Amino acid sequence: MTVRVFVGFFGLARALDRTIDSIEQHVFAPLLAENIEIVRAAHLNCPSVVHAPRSGETMVRYTRPDLSRLKLDALTLEEQSDERVADYIARIMKIPQYWEADEDGNMRRNVIHQMNSLKGLYTLLSGMDPQSFNAIILLRPDLRYIDPLPIRKFMAQIDPSVRLSTGKMHPLGQALRRGLRGPVDLITPDWHQWNGLNDRIAIATPQAAAAYLNRIDLLDDYAATHTHFQSEHLLKFAIERAGLKNAGTWVRANRVRTTGEEEGRDTDRKQPWLSAISRPIRIGLQI
């Protein structure tokens, strides 16, 4: 049986020239090594400038990158403008930003643009028979992926019925990959969660991908039960609302800004000694 995986990119393709090598080596290569059929798609925002002073990007001119190395099967490029998402912006401005001042609303507007891109990616996915995929991987193209995707572990967690052509293990090994919680609907990083769910990387079932990609539609419901906004909190809200089960992954990725600066403050945090020692083993065995 052919194993099919959808790999979707969303948001801004800023600094793709600095992240594409890691995408090829740590995302595509592990899938191809298992003879997995990859369907690649992207919905990308195209602003005239990138304005995110918090990350050191102040009115930086945006230049569309060369996307050829992503080898996309489907692509939507959307002009980024506040007018296109004015209704969503009006909704999110009613909820103060969690933990940080956002007096001009720029942080929340940028989140809306990213979530609108997620919804655009769902439009592409929904036209490709989502149920035909064994797993759906959702990624940002402006991240440098530090660890290779442990696809054997992911498949054991998302679709245990899959039998990959390589990397077969004793049932005990597969049980270790699957984890104590058994099969799950969604896998997100176990770092930078902010009491929610990290929204930079996701591996999902088709049902979980729909909840993940369309969470912008839950802003009103979220506002009715939360006093402040945080993107990680909204993702957790959407997954819990859908009754889905989430598991964490140790896969790391750093944001790379339009300026070329790589932000490693989240992944460079000091880890518990046991996690630091066991990481090479977990990477090698995909457990």
From TrEMBL:
Name used for this protein in its record: Uncharacterized protein
Organism: Sphingobium boeckii
